[in-house]
Design goal:
CATH topology of the largest domain: Heat Shock Protein 90
Radius of gyration: 49 Å
Helix content: 40-55%
Number of domains: 4
Shape: elongated
Distance between the termini: 89 Å
GO molecular function, one term: phosphorelay sensor kinase activity
Protein name: histidine kinase
Strand content: 15-25%
CATH superfamily of the largest domain: Histidine kinase-like ATPase, C-terminal domain
Strand order of the largest sheet: 2-1-5-4-3
Low-confidence stretches: 1-14
Oligomer: single chain
CATH architecture of the largest domain: 2-Layer Sandwich
Catalytic activity: ATP + protein L-histidine = ADP + protein N-phospho-L-histidine
Structural class: alpha+beta
Bound molecules: adenosine-5'-triphosphate, magnesium ion
InterPro entries: HATPase_C_sf, HATPase_dom, His_kinase_dom, HisK_dim/P_dom, HisK_dim/P_sf, PAS, PAS-like_dom_sf, PAS_fold
Largest sheet: 5 strands, antiparallel
CATH class of the largest domain: Alpha Beta
Number of helices: 12
EC number: 2.7.13.3
């Protein structure tokens, strides 16, 4: 229509110019006019093109605006845009729903007037006055009273020149966050409880294994002591008979034979020795078990593992050292939190085990090294003995596992040591080495004094 109008108009113009006024013009003037008219035509068609371009751009802009509006409308968090003076420029439907006030009434109002009275002091910060991102917990005025407590994040807004132009506020009810936090907290507590239960179960299982082991280990010596006592009781009967017959005037040689006194006297020695050995074994087991004192966390103190390891090495060397060379390589700052006595016991056991292991070697040597690094203190006890056979490596920490002869080891040493290390928040491990065995006690280093 516009095009046809244009053509009509320009046609009429040509007609007018050619029809009346051009009649009096000469040839040059006519050409000039025609030129002007052609230019005008050109400008006009350019204008038309710009108009259609503009219309297309407009349509695109409207589409983009509709898209942004629909996104803002479907955001469930509240969204409020304010200018640098704290005047509300835009709100989203979530904010309208929260306050129960129409967008038309909210836009143009000062943010401070829309906050609950107690929170009005926050208005300047919320309008981005500080120029920094900030978080606030505020309540908004609603049509009836005030909203739930909202966690509002404020992002400052800058204009095209980078100047402070206000802020964008987004937020959601704290209740929701709190519920999520509480659910997380509950899950965390449940997890901790499950973990405690597991540790408890593990402790019970290990106690069960210990008790079964103790029962088994004690049963052996007790049963042969018991058997021996029965035999001794029978022998007592025979001796009583023999002495009574002797007192009645019988022939001593005859009576000795009748009452089988000679084999009885021969048997008496081994019987008593066996019983004594059984009793010693029982007392060894009990002594080892008594060492196993479970500590209260309260009685811990600073322990210098370097000093303890040195003492333990001297101690063990006195008991089992023999001709074994012992090298000690200590260090400063090997402080841990714990019970000196228990840690001493752990190290004595590790070093005694090493001495036992090298007993058959031609050039027996044991090396004790103390190191403190990365918040841990490590004591390594290495020997040049036969090492721990792979087949038993996972059994050596079990109670009563021993490869030593009866009377030489109860098999409780490593088990007790391991329990003590665990109670101190550390561990004992067998470290692979090319020759011999290397046991490592690792404990957390004591932190600096507060
Ligand atoms: N340094 C070592 N080299 C080789 N084997 C070792 C070494 N230390 C421990 N073992 C093995 O681990 C087993 C268990 O050691 P543990 O200290 O628990 O008991 P034990 O020394 O046999 O007896 P106890 O310490 O109760 O007197 C030992 O019998 C031995 O077989
Ligand atoms: Mg031992």
């Amino acid at each position: 229509m516009a095009e046809r109008d244009g053509k009509d108009r320009s046609g009429r113009l040509i007609e007018q110019v050619t029809g009346s006024e051009l009649a009096g013009l000469d040839g040059a003037g006519e050409a000039l006019w025609l030129d002007v008219i052609a230019k005008m035509d050109e400008v006009y068609s350019d204008l038309l093109r710009y108009e259609t371009d503009l219309e297309a751009k407009n349509a695109e802009l409207e589409e983009a605006q509709a898209f942004i509006s629909s996104v803002i409308a479907s955001v469930s968090d509240i969204l409020v845009v304010v200018d640098a003076d704290g005047t509300i420029l835009q709100v989203n439907p979530a904010f309208v729903r929260l306050t129960g006030i129409s967008a038309a009434d909210l836009v143009g109002a000062k943010l401070a007037t829309r906050l609950a009275p107690a929170d009005r002091a926050a208005a300047t910060d919320l309008a981005g006055g500080s120029g920094e991102f900030s978080d606030r917990e505020v309540r908004f005025l609603t049509a009836e009273a005030v909203s739930d407590l909202m966690a509002v994040a404020c992002s400052p807004r800058l204009d095209h020149a980078g100047r402070h132009a206000g802020a964008v506020l987004t937020g959601r009810p704290i209740g929701e966050l709190r519920r999520a936090y509480e659910a997380l907290h509950r899950a965390h507590q449940e997890l901790q409880q499950a973990q405690r239960k597991l540790i408890e179960q593990e402790k019970m299982a290990s106690l069960g294994r210990l008790v079964a082991g103790v029962a088994h280990e004690l049963n052996n010596p007790i049963s042969f002591v018991y058997g021996n006592i029965h035999t001794l009781d029978r022998y007592r009967g025979r001796l009583t008979g023999f002495f009574e017959a002797l007192a009645a005037g019988g022939d001593p040689n005859e009576l000795r034979r009748t009452w089988r006194i000679d084999p009885l006297m021969e048997d008496l020695g081994p019987l008593l020795e066996g019983s004594l050995e059984g009793a010693v074994r029982v007392s060894d087991i009990v002594r080892n078990l008594r060492r196993l004192s479970f500590s209260k966390p309260g009685d811990r103190m600073a322990v210098d593992l370097d000093k303890v390891a040195r003492n333990a090495a001297n101690w063990a060397a006195r008991a089992k050292g023999g001709g074994t060379r012992i090298d000690f390589d200590g260090c400063d700052g090997a402080l841990v939190d714990g019970h000196e006595g228990q840690l001493h016991q752990v190290l004595v056991n590790l070093i005694e085990n090493a001495f036992d292991a090298v007993a058959g070697e031609r050039d027996p040597a044991v090396a004790v090294t103390v190191e403190a690094a990365d918040g841990m203190v490590e004591v390594r006890v290495q020997d040049n003995g036969p090492g721990v056979a792979p087949a038993v490596a996972d059994k050596i920490f079990e109670p009563f596992f021993t490869t030593k002869a009866v009377g030489e080891g109860t098999g409780l040493g490593l088990w007790i040591s391991y329990s003590i290390a665990r109670e101190h928040g550390g561990e004992i491990a067998l470290r692979p080495v090319p020759h011999g065995a290397c046991f490592v006690l690792r404990l957390p280093q004591r932190g600096p004094e507060p």
